[in-house]
Amino acid sequence: xxxxxxxxxxxxxxxxxxxxxxxxxxxxxxxxxxxxxxxxxxxxxxxxxxxxxxxxxxxxxxxxxxxxxxxxxxxxxxxxxxxxxxxxxxxxxxxxxxxxxxxxxxxxxxxxxxxxxxxxxxxxxxxxxxxxxxxxxxxxxxxxxxxxxxxxxxxxxxxxxxxxxxxxxxxxxxxxxxxxxxxxxxxxxxxxxxxxxxxxxxxxxxxxxxxxxxxxxxxxxxxxxxxxxxxxxxxxxxxxxxxxxxxxxxxxxxxxxxxxxxxxxxxxxxxxxxxxxxxxxxxxxxxxxxxxxxxxxxxxxxxxxxxxxxxxxxxxxxxxxxxxxxxxxxxxxxxxxxxxxxxxxxxxxxxxxxxxxxxxxxxxxxxxxxxxxxxxxxxxxxxxxxxxxxxxxxxxxxxxxxxxxxxxxx
Length: 410
Fold this sequence. Notes:
three-stranded antiparallel sheet; single chain; about 400 residues; three-stranded mixed sheet; mainly alpha
């Protein structure tokens, strides 16, 4: 009997052990599956910030040790660089790159009340505009792209516009446009294209300066041509806007840039540029990798997005947010804007040209307006609607600059 009791007790213990093991196995499988699901959710989840305050909070921190954070802010043209892209993205060298870029901008930027430096830039824009005026008709986007690229390279590096070939400029802008589209940013340049780009830049600015040239010229071009095109589209047929820009080209100072017109009833050039930037920021979305302790990362998204376009349409920027209204930036407006724009980012990794680029672009616009004046040349296009033109790289079909024939009234 004792033996039977022992065998029965062993069987009972074994059964309990098997049950405990089964429970432990199920529990382990459950927690393993939970961790896997959380991990998948972490790497696939994205949190998007759409208000001005939330965007600023996301972009304000600057941790230079995070290469991913630097990569997410540097304009996606690093594959054009004449030096390895690590020269831009390596945290230990990033500050040096920014300092060099600021020094280049400072070399062509006069003081707030001086216009001599800007006058030189105006002459560059004027010569470049003359170069690309059509004998009959030209695509508007190609026209603005060529003028913008030409003005940037001549303004920054003192290149004589007369030495630049329109064919070379067209090659550069077409190549950059193709690789600026979101679907192809991850596609590397073909070796022959990269060689052709390097050869042209070295020929224009010299081998010593070419090392940094593409890293600064190309991001400026990508943002400025679209801002110029959008602003010209909004100003087309608006005499008050035309007058404001022409006044600015005659007296290119910061005071003139910010001066409201007709006894403060018409917008300043700065207000017009700001409204174009509000509705069409060059960078629509900026990504940041989440910064949380290791044990918290499973419960947070791997990436956070600053939706600049949505933030610029939030109530802090006034009313009628889909309507172009440059007067919203007047301090005495019924609903004045009480927040700075986020078009060039925010915080320590914001664009280094955020103060220079709006005035420089305004001068390019002014010289185009001066020549495309409905007398010798006319800008022809559809009614420009902010809701339709969210992506300003495309959508310019039907927009042309046309030379007017003598005796023909439009």
